Task: inverse folding
């Protein structure tokens, strides 16, 4: 005898509830009701292939539903009998539903999600940021750089106090060094911008090609070759588009909108935060160091002056002057200095 299941039937057109019995014969599901008195509603009888019915997932406190193709549905009243009926039809819940009912599978899925998010953050997001940075048109980088420099000039930087002759000499010498490097690998367009800083010695490269060099770091180093090392390092960041990649990573959604719609406002809005707390990864710093090392080598200069930059800043920190902004964003260590000095 077929398993019989008590249920309520709703036709999907009215709120009227019909008391019915559900049974399955072969591949057909049949519902029917009997009139117990003349005052009761009309007799219900319906037959439908089980392949056309959609069974809701199991929930601990809610009745299961069986939905027809036209929107009508059954609300199961006898859950045990319904489970037995499903067993006879070899019905299986979807994989997702089965996992939800299994606490081990749920924990495994949660762990897998955490791992996926970690891998995405550590590897996929940086890779995607690099790809987006390479595909952005130059006009977008120009707008981003202009917006960043405008913000800095209003809130952090001030007009340089370095003599014009000293600025011209620094620029001319670095232009000569980059000309020597151009035979090794292409030099990205750049412009050295001199500013006085309200937060101490610093230097950084903007996506638009400006390398901002502060009076304070020039005076602290007091060495032309060391200043060339700072500029070479920042040119490495510029050549590898590190700041652009960092901006994209920290505003991934806005960066995607920039690529799709050309709206750079979301990326520009994130620049102040990134510039004021710009801590590059160790791998990124190695890339910039390697670029500076190659530039010094191409021009026959001693790498000692490049290492001297971080040694000098480290001395300032050890003397109680606090962590210089350039040192906080470009962490100096004995290991890093030795790597610069021992590079082939």
Result:
């Amino acid at each position: 005898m077929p398993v019989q299941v008590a249920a309520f039937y709703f036709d999907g057109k009215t709120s009227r509830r019909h008391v019915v019995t559900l049974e399955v014969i072969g591949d057909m599901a049949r519902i029917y009701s009997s009139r117990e008195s003349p005052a009761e509603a009309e007799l219900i009888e319906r037959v439908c292939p089980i392949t056309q019915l959609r069974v809701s997932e199991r929930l601990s406190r809610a009745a299961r539903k069986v939905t027809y193709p036209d929107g009508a549905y059954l609300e199961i009243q006898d859950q045990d009998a319904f489970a037995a009926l499903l067993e006879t039809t070899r019905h299986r819940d979807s994989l997702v539903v089965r996992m939800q009912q299994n606490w081990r599978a749920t924990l495994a899925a949660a762990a897998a999600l955490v791992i996926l998010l970690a891998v995405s953050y550590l590897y996929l997001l940086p890779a995607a940021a690099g790809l987006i940075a390479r595909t952005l048109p130059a006009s977008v980088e120009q707008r981003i750089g202009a917006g960043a420099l405008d913000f800095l000039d209003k809130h952090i930087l001030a007009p340089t106090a370095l003599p014009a002759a000293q600025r011209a000499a620094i620029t001319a010498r670095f232009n000569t060094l980059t000309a020597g490097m151009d035979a090794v690998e292409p030099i990205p367009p750049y412009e050295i911008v001199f500013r006085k800083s309200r937060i101490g010695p610093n230097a950084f490269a903007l996506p638009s090609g400006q390398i901002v060099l502060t009076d304070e770091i020039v005076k602290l180093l007091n060495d032309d070759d060391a200043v060339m090392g700072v500029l070479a390092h920042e040119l490495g960041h510029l050549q590898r588009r590190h700041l652009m990649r960092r901006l994209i990573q920290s505003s991934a959604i806005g960066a995607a909108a920039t690529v799709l719609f050309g709206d750079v406002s979301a990326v520009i809005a994130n620049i102040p935060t990134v510039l004021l707390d710009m801590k590059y990864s160790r791998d990124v710093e190695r890339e910039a160091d390697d670029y500076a090392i190659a530039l010094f080598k191409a021009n026959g200069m001693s790498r000692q002056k490049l290492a001297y930059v971080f040694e000098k800043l480290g001395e300032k920190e050890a003397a109680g002057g606090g962590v210089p902004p350039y040192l906080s964003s470009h962490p100096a260590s004995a290991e890093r200095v030795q790597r610069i000095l021992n590079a082939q």
